[in-house]
Amino acid sequence: MLGLLQTAQGWLNKTREIDFLAPLLLRLYLIPVFWMAGTQKLAHFDSTVEWFGNPDWGLGLPVPWLMAALAVGAELGGAILYTLGLATRWISLPLMFTMIVAAVTSHAENGWLAIAAGDGVFATERTMEAIERLTAVRSILMEHGNYEWLTEHGSIVVLNNGIEFAATYFIMILALFFYGGGRYVSLDYWIDRKFGQK
After folding, report:
1. pLDDT at 80
2. Can you list the positions of beta strands (E) in the chain?
3. pLDDT of residue 170
4. Local structure of residue 181 (DSSP, 8 states)
5. How far apart are CA 66 and CA 140, in angstroms?
6. Rounded distance, CA 109 to CA 54, Å?
7. Distance between CA atoms of 178 and 122, rounded to whole angstroms?
8. 58 CB contacts (<8 Å, ≥6 apart)?
9. What is the spatial distance between Cα 23 and Cα 180, in angstroms, rounded to a whole number?
10. Residue 153 and residue 120: Cα distance in Å, rounded?
11. Whole-number pLDDT of residue 118
């Protein structure tokens, strides 16, 4: 039995030869997330600044122009540097900060869930009420709209805008912060191989 376990462990250890896939896939997943977020903020920069600074209907952040510029820079810079696998650990720092700010200022008041759910451990009064509204919307669309066509490519949901996505992205970025861009398919790897300490 011990021999069988050792053989299985040996096979498992062989997968480390392709361990570069994990950071590569994390980077590839995050690139479009940050590119889209950064380009949207940049394209509507004035309204982004207004939203960042307004305490009544926005985030109420201090120095909103600077905060918006830093968010855009981190997101666009992150997308570009993650694409290259360059300065992966360094760019992860402002990206983690951006996710923390987003979670605290924009998402925390909505609870955990990104999409409203009426049951489960993370359901709140807010999400349960959203499900009631969703049921009403579906009913109206079934009666007055082409519901099958509207839902042909996906269900209608209510965005709860909780911290779920920001927390998930933070954890992915944290992994890249600790492990870097990975072997072979990152410039960090080749630069370290060429110029790193022997």
Report:
1. 98
2. none
3. 98
4. T
5. 44
6. 17
7. 29
8. 50, 51, 52
9. 7
10. 25
11. 86
Write the burial class of residue 18 (CB in 10 Å: 0-12 exposed, 13-18 middle, 19+ buried): exposed
In the structure encoding, which two tokens stand for residue 9, read together?
């462990």
How far is Cα 67 from Cα 69, in angstroms, rounded to an integer?
Answer: 5
Cα dihedral 13→17→22→24 (10° resolution)? 170
**Residue 158: per-residue pLDDT:** 92
Largest CA-CA distance found in the chain, in angstroms, rounded = 71
Spatial contact of 156 and 13, defined as CB atoms under 8 Å apart:
no
- Whole-number Å distance between alpha carbons of 8 and 2: 10
What confidence score (pLDDT) does residue 198 get?
Answer: 57
Tell me the C-alpha distance between 30 and 169, whole Å. Answer: 8
Looking up tokens 């779920």, which residue turns up?
Answer: 164
The H or E element spanning position 124 is none
**Contact by Cβ (8 Å): 161, 110:** yes
Give me the pLDDT at residue 77, please.
98
Q: Which of 97, 115, 113 is nearest to 105 (CA)?
A: 97
- What per-residue confidence (pLDDT) applies to 29? 98
> Which stretches of the chain score pLDDT less than 50?
none
The whole-number pLDDT of residue 169 equals 98
DSSP state of 159: B
